[in-house]
Amino acid sequence: MDMKTLVTQAHQVIELCRTHGFTLATAESCTGGLIAATLTDVPGASLVFDRGFITYSNEAKTELLGVSANLIEQHGAVSEQVAREMAQGALMRAKTGIAVAVTGVAGPDGGTKEKPVGLVHIACARAEHPILHNKYLFGPLTRKEIRMATVEAAFDLILQQIPASDLA
What we know:
Helices cover 42% and strands 19% of the residues. It is of the alpha/beta class. The protein has one domain: CinA-like (Maf protein). A five-stranded mixed β-sheet has the order 2-1-3-4-5, sandwiched between helices. A hairpin with a 5-residue loop joins strand 4 (119-126) and strand 5. The chain is globular.
């Protein structure tokens, strides 16, 4: 996955959101703002992209997105539960139509047997719709490759959150 391909995907996300009147927010941990940066590489992104929350620390997840500290303690920051709360928190705080959240272990350090390097949880929230979630095990890739694969997967999940039945 190269940056040019990611920008092409970002263009699809921006165009679909624009066409259907959605605004978009991001809540990023392991990508550190790469999703937002890729979206804003697209001319006209300002018509759709509202804001990005970079919540690298657990404290930031709690303070900026309202993720429960108890939830983080119970499940760990890299978990489905935290990804879902991050997405919901971004959706509510930004007052956007869609919010995507990512949390994972990009490496090369920090992995454990239970949560290896390459484990990423992505959640996408849309008002009055179920939160979508996917778990990825990107495997033994470099930190950059894991982060780029996470951006690609986040864009895919955003596109899934706008079903064909909603298309005009």
